[in-house]
Amino acid sequence: MGSRDPVIVGIGWSDYPVTPQLDSMDHHALALRRALADCGLEKSDIDGYVCASGFSQNVDDAPNMAEYLRINHRWIDSTSVGGSSFEFHVQHAAAAIEESLCDVVLVTYGSDLLSRAGRMLGTSTFSTGGTRVPGPAQYENCWGNVLAGGYALAARRHMHEFGTTSAQLAEIAVGVREFAGLNPHAQYRDPITVDDVLGSRMIADPLHKLDCCVISDGGGAFIMTTKERARDLAKPPVYVLGAAGAQTHWTISQMPDFTTTAAAQCGPEAFGLAGVRPEEVDTIQVYDSFTITVLLLLEDMGFCKKGEGGAFVETGVLRRGGRQPLNTDGGGLSACHPGMRGIFLINEAVRQLRGEGGEAQVPDCEVAVACGSGGYLSCIATVVLGKEGRS
Amino acid sequence: MTIEGLQETLVLRALPAPDNASRHYWQSAAEGKLVVQRCTTCGEYQFYPRALCVACAGETEWVEASGRGTLHTFTVIRQNRSAAFAALSPYAVGIVELEEGVRMMSNIVDCDVDALEVGMALEVLLLKAADDVGLPFWRPVAR
Lengths: 391, 143
Fold this sequence. Notes:
The complex is a heterodimer. Chain A is α/β, with parallel strands linked by helices. In chain A, about 30% of the residues lie in helices and about 15% in strands. Chain A is globular. By secondary structure, chain B is mainly beta. Chain B has helices spanning about 5-10, 25-30, 85; strands at about 15, 35-40, 45, 60-65, 70-75, 90-100, 105-110, 120-130, 135-140.
């Protein structure tokens, strides 16, 4: 491999989970400042910018944000495919850096979803009565489905085909909550049990309240550059070993197979590029919008066979102290979910690979995977990151 | 949701804005007929209606559907904080697989939502929501 190998050198978070004093622009700015401080680069070093438009009242599309933050870029990307946008961004930025389209790429995200809109996202109808709905949503919004209900359709089908149980899904929420207990910023930190999950209010059968992610405020940023440029920076670089994305549908009713996501395509592709097998991954950062999201992505990436995700999570492999700990910052299920959580997956993987995980540190962490899901299990991207570059 | 109660819920709903591809579909449903597209080249059925066949990019024709299907998967919405649907909870949102092989989202009505099962036989129930829009609800076939 060469001197232009793409690496992540700086990471930053704004404040979360509840920050009524910040608006989404504040989150972008705070995260940017902290990512720069983390790596020691100057703002003027940035010549590539990426931003996905999110759940914000502010105008936060890429060209508006580039102006607001005054980024003098020679390469820009506005890919916005929901929560997984940031995993797609890593793929795109890595290619841009390798091709010398730019040298230092900044990715930012900021959201004031909780303080602005409250906790309605998962359990509200998408359009109000009396309105007319254009586009593909015209075939769904009249039925009163809610966001949680879309994922419930996948969970129900998985249960039907493979005998997966609510208790198995609950294991995921319980394990992630244990890590949230180690994160002082996490929205919910008290330990929970499988019975707690099963006893929580049913939102959309078969998903209970504790199968669903939280709603928060928050933001993040990361900075990518070349292996060469990274040499004199503050922190050791984290290498992008492989990144791939794919899409099967956008609206949930168009999902071709309710038990299989596009991770079945982009997971193996990313691992192939990285030259890494799933069993060699030391920590897994998976988009946990709902417990079923994690189960499907794990199966599809190849951590276990299709249909065996329930038994896989019961082994404890993903728990603290297990062989492949999952969502070591407490995830969207417990720590924070400001609407599009994919940037937190990247930042947490980098934190672990640097050995900065504190009490949540995974021992001997050399390879991490971040897998984002955007839309309704629709646009999936997998990123394999390493402490060392490809040999 | 009972059939009697259904009609009055229609005004609470966000209705589709028909476009070139969907206008005939919604209009037919308003007139009591469920139609789907079939490709004139490769013969594939598709839903939702589009300006091309998604399999081969060919042109499509309209075919009347049998109105029978099975429940592919479903959820029961226990909590919807929107004013329009809050009073209807709990209600079933399902993915129906039509005999023609295509799938659509709908409400499964005229049933006990706690008795629904994946694979159960369903039949369509078309209700007129506006002059240009009929909505295809589905209900379990009486055994």
